[in-house]
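Trying the structure run again after the queue cleared.
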Amino acid sequence: MRKRLLIALAIFAAAFVLNAVLTSSGYFPDPDSFYHAKMAELMTRTPGVRDFPWLTETVFADAYVDHHWGYHLLLVPFVAALGSVEGIQLATLILASLVPAAAFLLVASWGSTRVGAVAGLLLLLNNPFGFRINLAKAPAFSVLFVLMAIAAIDRKKPFVLALLAALYVWSYNGWPLFFIIAGSYAAASLIEAAVAAGPPALRRLATWRAALSPLVAISTGTLVALVANPYFPDNVRFSWLHIVQIGIIGFKDKIGVGGEWYPTDPLALVAQSSFVFGFLLAGIVALVVAAGVTQGRVFRDAASARERRRALWLTVLAVGFFVLAARSRRNVEYFVPFATLAAAALVVFATRLVSAADWRKFFDVFLRLRLWQRVPIFVALAFLIPLILFRDLRSLKNDFDTGIPSSKYSGAAAWLEANAPEGAILWHNDWDDFPYFFLHTTRVRYLVGLDPSFMYVRNKEKYWQWVRETRGEGEDRIGREMARDFGAAYAFVDSDHEELAARFAADHEMTEVYRDADGIIYALPSGTAQ
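Done. Tokens:
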């Protein structure tokens, strides 16, 4: 156990150093990070934000639900000690570095320290996964919960699993993921029982009780947390909106949403995760060899039932989340660890019943090769592995180096903080402008943010009216129109919308009050607001 902890600590330290280098620019590739930093700052003064007046045209204006409440609580001590920006950066660095170390400990608990080390290193060096968990938002936090849930299910710890489910509901609105994990486990358990003992096994109550126990534990913890929730009952309605209407059904075919909701090219995902797919292929080959050596006994042996069930369970999850990742980029953060764990489980399962002598026989084909025949293989591997690593890490470094500085819109926000009346509404031309302003000032109100779907589902007519205005369409006196339609006292146009800026400048009822490299603030005609 001590050896495992030392290896886990070494993996954490390596991950911490690597992630610190990759994210050393201090930039945020995702606008949501600004929102999370500010929420943690607000929660240093109160443990839960109940009223959220800052998004006047979204569902949050009617009833606010902090669907990252537990995550924001976790950030509070970091933000309180270091400030909002540096605090969330350090917290993210620690969480992202814990993930490969936790994956190592999970796989090592299956009986193979070496396979666990491979799994941890693969997660550490994966490009799309590394990008997602190093974002200053909840992915790394969520993946850690997932790894703990897998461990609790595998070790048959229903009370721990129920507690994890409750904490997950309070922390992150991705709680249906636990049901997918437990449902896959139930299916794998029933299939394994039927294959190993025959169909009569499915008529035994004990078989069903063991298969469904994790679902019962998760259901209990989830129900308790949904009801014993600071945002109940609004959190239940919001979960339906966020998980079903936005997450499953989606609006990406109707409106422009965040990039993480759009599909991933499956071939690109394979190329970007080549080491993980190589590990998965190795696991499949190992299983085929084990099946041949044992003449199929590996699929029936009672002593390997747990390993067999685990391998099937995680493989089902890996395949399912590969499909989901192809549908939505945000699922990459789950597919990669599931695929890595599935590969590790296949290797552990395959090697359980095959002796070292039998494995040597399998590799005799390679060992019998002459030196001149082996050299090209070693040279190819020695060339390809560093090349792929360099490609992936350089791409990952570039993603963070070209991110968004924490000072974005700080000048415009400072002007608003000093000059705008408390509660004045700022019209802005992009939905992702909100978090940049929100980090620097809460004095004024904004229209839409976090996801345009939150505005679209509340009032489609107003959403399309806002879209038309962002395109410079509508009435000649656009300033009067914005003030009338949204009660706005000011309008902000960023430096990327030159045509819209020209339209604003041509409206003589709009008065320019602030300008910098990021954009321009105009005062709108008074007396025309709602």
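The two ends are 66 Å apart (CA to CA). Worth checking whether this holds up in the mutant runs.
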